[in-house]
Write a structure and sequence with these properties.
alpha+beta; about 40% helix; single chain; five-stranded antiparallel beta sheet; about 190 residues
């Protein structure tokens, strides 16, 4: 698959605007619904893999969202089992276009880290509770991501609320992978 990446400094602002928002920053759920990133994920990530939440990062010098994917074993009425992350990718935070795709075996996102197979415990939350939290995370990211990408420290209570919701949405056993992929985001959200 050929993926073209436009230089982030020459982006047409009208192209970047999120419908219904005055922000030029997209959030991960926007990217999932958009053509370039959705098409990219469909082409390179096997359907049966677990796809992480996308988290904001400046780790690779440009405003982006980082994701990872792991092979998964799914069985009815059994907890989800995940193998170590196999790959990760970045999406431009303004356009949603793919910036980077890497196999962890060739270019690890955490040098020296090894992860084993993990079981995601059932949290006994309803799908409605999960969706409500996801919608609140989206709203908080839409509000806070400009501060993160411009390296501003503000809105402490909202950052704390976001951190709490993310911890509830993500399994504790995956937090080391999320923290290794986007250490700058966790430093900011926990400051």
């Amino acid at each position: 698959m050929n993926v073209s990446v436009k230089d982030h400094r020459s982006i047409d602002v009208k192209e970047c605007e999120v419908p219904g928002s005055d922000s030029t920053w997209k959030i991960p759920s926007d990217l999932i619904r958009m053509g370039p990133m959705a098409d990219f994920e469909d082409a390179v990530i096997p359907t049966e893999y677990f796809k992480s939440l996308g988290l904001p990062t400046l780790r690779w010098t440009v405003p982006a969202y980082a994701f990872f994917a792991s092979p998964a074993l799914r069985s009815p009425d059994e907890p989800l089992e995940l193998f170590p992350p196999e790959c990760y990718w970045l999406a431009d935070a303004r356009t949603g276009r793919p910036l980077l795709f890497a196999q962890c075996s060739a270019l690890p996102f955490a040098v020296g880290e090894t992860w084993g197979r993990v079981t995601i415990p059932n949290r006994y939350r309803t799908m409605e509770q999960f969706r409500e939290d996801a919608a609140t995370i989206d709203a908080l990211l839409r509000e806070l991501v400009p501060s993160f990408f411009t390296r501003e420290r503000r809105e402490d209570d909202k950052r704390e609320h976001l951190r709490t919701l993310l911890e509830r949405q993500m399994s504790d056993v995956l937090m080391p992978q999320y923290r290794a992929l986007t250490p700058d985001f966790f430093e900011w959200v926990e400051a």
